[in-house]
Amino acid sequence: MKVSLDLIVRSTEIDVNGHVNNAKYLEYLEWGREEWYDANALHYDVFKTLGVQTVTVNINISYRKECRQGDRLIVTTEPQSIGRSSYVLKQEIVNEHGELCADALVTSVTMNIETRKSHAVPDALRARFE
Fold it and tell me: What InterPro entries does the record point to (predicted)?
């Protein structure tokens, strides 16, 4: 399922170049992933009950177009691929004109809470990729 999050660029997210600081894009993506987990009823407590947590291990991001204060952005998040203990979410940030501002592939791993070792992706999460 593809999930969208709307946001408006705030003044505190702008750097000395007058556009959104590169690190803020990563924060926008994180907000988008949280929205995706929420929309799929995969709250932290669900994972905790299953004895696992998710850890982001890689983010491949391409910055395509600058964003400026007051811009209205849409962050979309959707499943891309899944392995034994890892999965990839595809994310895009587009502006109000439909222009692609950034896109990313974000790899996460499910980890056993107690052993801190990788753990097979739980069925509740795996089902969102089918």
Answer: 4-hydroxybenzoyl-CoA_TE, HotDog_dom_sf, YbgC/YbaW
What SS3 string covers 62-105?
A: EECCCCCCCCEEEEEEEEEEECCCEEEEEEEEEECCCCEEEEEE
Q: Which residue is catalytic, options 6, 15, 38, 45?
A: 15
Helix (H, G, I), strand (E, B) or coil at 33: helix
Q: What span, in angstroms and rounded, lies between the C-alpha atoms of 111 and 54?
A: 6
Kindly report the length of the chain.
130
Strand, coil or helix: 34: helix
pLDDT in tens, 19-71: 999 999 999 999 999 999 999 999 999 999 999 999 999 999 999 999 999 99
Closest CA to 54 of 1, 128, 130: 128
Q: What is the domain count for the chain?
A: 1
Q: What is the DSSP letter of 25?
A: H
Q: Which CATH number do you get for residue 73? A: 3.10.129.10
Backbone φ, ψ for residue 71 (5° rounding): -60, 140
Domain encompassing residue 40: 3-129
| Single-letter amino acid, residue 98 | G
